[in-house]
Structure formats: C-alpha cells, structure tokens
Fold this sequence. Notes:
The protein contains four helices and ten strands. It starts with 9 loop residues before the first strand and ends in a 6-residue tail after the last strand. A hairpin with a 2-residue loop joins strand 6 and strand 7. By secondary structure, it is α+β, with helices and mostly antiparallel strands. It has a five-stranded antiparallel beta sheet. Strands 3-8-5-10-4 form a five-stranded antiparallel beta sheet. The protein is globular, with a radius of gyration of 16 Å.
Amino acid sequence: MKGINPMPQALFLFNENDKANPTKIITNIHKITKELESIGITHGMYPIDQFNDHENALHTTTTKKSIAEIQEHYGFAHHELASIGPEHPDKYKEVKTRNLQLHWHDAPETRLFLNGGGAFGISNSSWLGICVLSAGAFIQIPAKTYHWFDYGLINPDYPPKYSVVRFWKTTGSL
C-alpha cells in the first residue's frame, strides 16, 4: 500500500499552569516547524513510500533516498527500524509504559515516521507542547530535552501500528 497516512499533523501549545487546555493549536506544517525551531527542535517532512508491513517500508527507493539525505545532512552514521504492531501485542504495554515516562537522553532523539504516527510531549522550561506526527514526519529533539512519546490507544479491535527510523551518530549514542 503506497501513499501518505491521512493523519493530520498538529502542534498543541499549553500554559505551564493549565496543562489540560491548549492555548494554541497549529496545523500548518510550516508554522509547526517554525514554532518547534524556536526551542531548538528540528521538524520537517520527507517523501516516503508507506506499506502495511514494516520491513518493506524501509527498503523502497523513495524512503531509502530520504534516509540517506537525513544521514548526510545531520551526520548520522547509523539508523534502524523500530516498530510496533499487531504481530507483537505482548509489547504494547511495555513500550507504552516506558515511552510515556517524562525522560531525556544524552544524545538527540531523531525519528522519521514511515507508518502510523504518534505524539511527542515536549517540555523546555516554560514551553509545553504536544506534537502529533504522521508518516513522512521527521523530528529531532535535542539532547537533555524532557519529552515523552505516545502511539495511541491499545485497542484490540484497532491495534496501534507504527514504524519509525531511529538515527544516531555512534553506537553508544542511542
């Protein structure tokens, strides 16, 4: 199945004192990118070919070209496919629990979404936002930036499914 996931992208901004109601919702890709860049987060869209199975999504000409472009532009030496789907339902809860914890990394967290989508919650001093991403979206969260990730409801009738390419510079950086 080729094509881009119709899931819209959005950025929800919150006030530190009211984390339940967004103060602003941005759906224009260029405005999302500009807002995220204001706090040092890189965001953009890359052409990909989307498939139902995770492995084929990684090996198409268009996707391979986007991966090579990202690696060259940002100096990444390594990448790998990370995915979740109905073929491993025992992993849903474990992955969700780990990723929903507010955390940070010593190295940037860099992702290119191939299938499905999810939301990154990001906290940078008084800036709070939730960035909803879909297939073709690229995001790089700087090192030591607090964030969490959620890929959606765990519903047996409509199990979550996503594939991302994770990038890093050295084997010890991930």
